[in-house]
């Protein structure tokens, strides 16, 4: 299974937030640290906010932070939220896709079982398990 860049970037951002869960981070700060598009990150933060994984604060001192402690946010939950718009295969699309094998395919059930097994395994870990080390003043957020 291959995760989208949307999910990859979201996981990176959340791993950084998990290092300092009470701190507000700006999209510019996270986007710059990981070399990702600020606009792309804003869309990711909107999805995570709608799902109750992060909270946002507007204004001059605004930003976003985790909505819950990192040990209460499962990796499976995150991936489900961020991958919701991306179907593993055509027939998994909400509209049924354009699969000509619908009704005669024995693969869909097996692929769905594999996807669910993947997500159940991620459910065994939390964001706290993969938090990045806290950044030090003047240090790049992503630096070890």
Going by helix content, strand content and strand pairing, the class is mainly alpha
Order of helices and strands: HHHEEHH
How many angstroms separate the termini?
Answer: 27 Å
Largest sheet: 2 strands, antiparallel
Helix content: 40-55%
Please state the CA-atom Rg, rounded to the nearest Å: 17 Å
How many individual helices? 5
- DSSP strand (E) fraction? 5-15%
Q: Reading side by side through the largest sheet, how are the strands ordered?
A: 1-2
Number of domains: 1
What's the β-strand tally?
2
Low-confidence stretches: none
The fourth-level CATH homologous superfamily is Winged helix-like DNA-binding domain superfamily/Winged helix DNA-binding domain
Supply the CATH class.
Mainly Alpha
Organism: Sinisalibacter aestuarii
Keywords: DNA-binding
Pfam families: Rrf2
InterPro entries: TR_Rrf2-type_CS (IPR030489), Tscrpt_reg_Rrf2 (IPR000944), WH-like_DNA-bd_sf (IPR036388), WH_DNA-bd_sf (IPR036390)
